[in-house]
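hey m, so remember when u said the tokens were messed up on ur end? i reran from scratch. heres the input so u can diff it against urs
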Amino acid sequence: MLNQSDTNIEAVSTLILNQGFDVAFLVPTETAMGKSIMDAHGSVRSFLKRNNIHDYETQPQGPKEYLNVNFITAGEVYVRKVSLYRPETKEGDPRIWIYGLKKLANPWNLIALIYTAGELYAVNCSNNSDLTRALDHVIPKPVSSISSTASELLLKLKAISQRGMIPSMRQGDTGVGMTLETLLGIEANSNRAPDYHGIELKASRVKKGARRKNKNQLFSKTPNWKLSPVGSAENLVMTRGYVDQDDQYALRHTVSGEKPNSLGLYLDIDYTNNYLRQMFTDTNISDFNPKHDMTWLVGDLRKALQKKHSETFWVKALHNNDRHNEAFHYVEVEHTSNPYIDKLETLLETGLITMDYTLHLKESGKARDHGYLFKLKANSIESLFPKPLIYDLTE
């Protein structure tokens, strides 16, 4: 239902999450507006539960519960009552309604629910010419401070930066990171633990004066094969893949929760079982029976995110535009810590975190992969972390 909103949910998600808020979204249909009731879908239920606002799982069918919400417009804040209940009919599917919504929104508007500083807020994102100004009514979260280990690493990076352009020690995409790690005395290994005494290092190429355009790779996580109907990487490539230009069976594609990709693959959160699922729908027909291919446990993804990025230096390097004789000047660091683990489902659902397949079949018929890569969209650091500290290494 969210993808039927009249407003770009990815852009709105980025704006709200980048300010450090936890958020869930509602999109009232014409039927919902007429009946004054909306489904409390999985992401809304999860949002209310993790913020200790309301737990539908413990609510009996029948009686309603109420709370207040601050409904924000560009110039006003209205206090409105919200009803939460499970009807006595059938399975008692959770329902939610904001009183007076018909005067504040139209069908298919995008309504953001935000919780911070002990208060619940609602914002009509489709009817706000200046959403940033509207969000000024919400108290921002504090920024993190720098650790002693981070101070030590920062001094070393500044010393490396003073050397100017440094020839790459490896050709290819991994040269920028491998060169930096070598300069810091970090030995290459397959250990997935953070690189420098608990701090993860992520280096990327940028052009002078440009913002980061590439996605930020967060971590790699293999699916839970026992819970994945496809059963194996080989079956996945043969079922959903294609023959590439090298005449190999391959599956190299980005998969998002926002919408199906060109292969009909998309991500879906199963809130009942706490799964992230990769689904398939035939985009050439009206496919009302999508197929479930792959499964990750959301709990496993959260653990991987926390382990990998409890503290991270995202290092930017200018390069000389010569991929055969490449050289780097490491010039800036975005320093993040304490990721918003509870936002992971929202980021997956809205397409701000995507997953890349990097698979092909070898001559033996066995699958070769370069990881199941979970990535954060460009310029969305503040969607996942408190406001980063920025260090200019050239100063």
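this time it looks ok to me. The mean pLDDT is 87. if urs says something different then somethings off w ur setup not the seq
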